[in-house]
């Protein structure tokens, strides 16, 4: 039976628009895949992995979380990311996941950073894991929609940097396994610049893991 709130604001699955649930069992099944190795055109110099392709329920959920205010979808996306990370991680080392940064204007428009939100959910789902938002984007980064691989790299070059006070507070130990995470891997430009910034701060990145790859 529908509640009054559901009549006013119908609850729809974030992957297929099925009414009455925020995330249906069928779409949940689509996230139980991977991880698979991917090789972006811009090589960040570390192995890149995706939970799956940018299609179906996975694609619709990422778009809904980023562009339509579906903050609730951070939970299934975060759990799926955690599952992939758990399959890849070293069992005898602490895991630190670093969310790729977003433009400040985009984060404000979206009511927060969806990548950071998913990273926090993923970290809370894994023992010996924590999320560390060590990166930020400097002003001047354009929206990357419509840009090719080279233009995306030029758009980001030198504009992704670490936040020194966050790096200091993170207290990264020599045995920590640091992994960069993001929602979508397109050309690899964001991953390349993010890993470059982390290396410049003396942080060894072991891999890039994303929710989906184009």
Automatic annotation (TrEMBL):
InterPro entries in the record: ComF/GntX_DNA_util-trans, PRTase-like, PRTase_dom
Family: Belongs to the ComF/GntX family.
Originating organism: Nocardia stercoris
Protein name (Swiss-Prot/TrEMBL): ComF family protein
